[in-house]
Amino acid sequence: MPEYPPQLKHKVIFETFDALNRGEAMLLINDHDPKPLFYQFQIERPNQFTWDYLEQGPETFRVKIGCV
């Protein structure tokens, strides 16, 4: 994923998620735990996503975010 300015990252992530079809997933790679994004998903897309850590740091966090 290309680098985005901080103020655009969550917007781009949600746009990417919204373009997924049911059953598809996206991979988020981050240099810190994206837990605040998880909470934002819970608020903005309740019961619409799955969140599976594939790698949990300390330097790289990889999260598979699925569309249910």
How does this structure look, described?
- There is one protein chain.
- The protein is 34% helix and 31% strand.
- The chain has two helices and three strands; from the N terminus they run H-E-H-E-E.
- A three-stranded antiparallel β-sheet has the order 1-3-2, with helices on one face.
- A hairpin with a 4-residue loop joins strand 2 (49-56) and strand 3 (61-67).
- The mean pLDDT is 94.
Decide which structural class fits the backbone: alpha+beta
Low-confidence parts lasting 5 or more residues at pLDDT below 50? none
Shape: globular
Describe the sheet with the most strands. 3 strands, antiparallel
Pattern of helices and strands: HEHEE
In which order are the strands of the major sheet placed? 1-3-2
Number of strands: 3
Number of helices: 2
**Portion of residues in helices?**
25-40%
Measured on Cα atoms, how large is the radius of gyration?
A: 11 Å
Q: State the distance separating the first and last CA atoms.
A: 22 Å
Mean pLDDT: 94
Summarize the helices and strands and which ones pair or pack.
Blueprint lengths: L5 H13 L6 E6 L4 H10 L4 E8 L4 E7 L1
Name its key features.
68 residues; alpha+beta; three-stranded antiparallel beta sheet; 31% strand; globular
Short description:
This protein is α+β, with helices and mostly antiparallel strands and 68 residues long. The protein has two helices and three strands, in the order αβαββ.
